[in-house]
Amino acid sequence: MVPAVLDALAQARERTFGLVAHLDDEDLERVVDPIMSPLAWDLGHIAAYEDLWINHRQGGLPLVRADLAALYDAFETPRKVRGGLRFLRGESLREYMQMVRDRALTVDPGDGFLHELVARHELQHNETMLQTMGLGGMLPDGMGHPSPVDGDGLEFVEVPGGLALIGAPDDVFAYDNERPRREVEIKPFRIGCTPITNATWLHFCEGGGYVRREWWSREGWAWKEDYDITHHGPAEAGDPDAPVVHVSWFEADAFARAHGARLPTEVEWEKAATWGQLEETGQVWEWTASPFGGYPGFVAHPYREYSEVFFGDRYRVLRGGSCATHARVATPHFRNWDLPERRQIFSGVRIAV
Q1: What are phi and psi of 56, to 5 degrees?
Q2: Bridge partners of 285?
């Protein structure tokens, strides 16, 4: 167990540094969009999280830099203010990250849960950083672009009804919102064999996708009008046979309505994924119709702020992982979530009927 979790930490850090290797300090420190952090803040936050959970909580050691705790607390410092803060930069940032890691390697992992939590946290922030790079035109070569799929997204597979086991099994690492596992009765449905492609999305656009009011929810139409959303640039620029990416939930919902379909619930998605009927998962996060909430019997662990504070109708669940998601994170049970207007995430759409 010990070599495995320590190796996971090492691999995550190697990936983190590899993603930013082509950037200079100015790139790392700039604010590319108010909804995203400077990349240097993300790097400091990754180290502070590791220091808190491995060195302090698991190892009982004092924090390497207690004065940085509030600065790198995601709730104390929301994204819109991080660019104006005195976060660590340059050599000071690199030294802090190394000091935290050197100390973490001396801590007994115990059952390994917190080490695994920290490794996956870093990998999840890798994807957040890639979102920032995408918005700022700084993506590493070959990253952030889905590969072509064999299908247009409009072909369906039949999924029979019946009981389905939903949630993570007890013998694997999982987040609190993936448990407890339970049986759910599901009605028969059909779901797309593949995600919707850029070519299919462009047909939707050419058919009036952004002007046909009847295809949009009230909230979606208001968002589209407020932000003057008239087209989808990534679909126009992307490979026609690759899944469309950077789609908001509002757009995904409108697309499904335009095709006499709907977004799958997350229970339907997980049933199809664990039954082996979904092809090309992991190319784009796939929006579901489900709001983010706890399963019956939910217990927050190891802290409320990981997921419980986001429960409610504001956020929608995404499933499956993306071309920017590390395989360690993208399990069939993992629940991602975001606001329905967000487009910076590597999100696409798979429809159901």
Answers
A1: -85, -55
A2: 347
Name residues whose C-beta falls within 8 Å of residue 126's C-beta, 6 or more positions apart in sequence. Answer: 12, 15, 16, 19, 324, 326
Q: What are the residues whose beta carbons fall under 8 Å from the beta carbon of 13, sequence distance 6 or more?
A: 101, 122
Amino acid type, 165: L
Residues 271-293 have pLDDT tens digits of: 999 988 898 899 999 999 999 99
- C-beta of residue 189 within 8 angstroms of C-beta of residue 268: yes
| C-alpha to C-alpha distance for 284 and 275, rounded to whole angstroms | 19
Rounded CA gap, 78 and 125, in Å? Answer: 15
With beta carbons less than 8 A apart as the criterion, state whether 347 and 247 touch.
yes
pLDDT value at 3 more than 80: no
Rounded to whole angstroms, the Cα distance separating 99 from 112 reads 21
Query: pTM, whole model, 2 decimals?
Result: 0.96
CATH 1.20.120.450 corresponds to the domain 2-135: yes
Tens digits of per-residue pLDDT, 34-61? 999 999 999 999 999 999 999 999 999 9
Tokens of residue 267, six digits:
């229970």
Show the CA angle centred on residue 97, arms to residues 95 and 338, nearest 5°.
145
Q: What are phi and psi of 154, to 5 degrees?
A: -105, 5
Cα 46 to Cα 58: distance, rounded to the nearest angstrom: 16
CA separation, residue 129 to residues 46, 52, 143 (Å): 11, 21, 12
CATH code, 156-348: 3.90.1580.10
Number of H helices and E strands in the chain, helices first, is 11, 8
Domain boundaries, the chain: 2-135, 156-348
Cross-strand pairs, 190:
158
Kindly list the distances between the CA atom of residue 274 and the CA atoms of 105, 318, 334, in Å, as whole numbers in the listed order: 36, 16, 12
Alpha-carbon dihedral of residues 275, 278, 282, 286, nearest 10 degrees? -110
Under 8 Å between Cβ of 143 and 173 = no
CA distances from 204 to 42, 154, 194, 201, 212 (A): 37, 12, 17, 5, 10
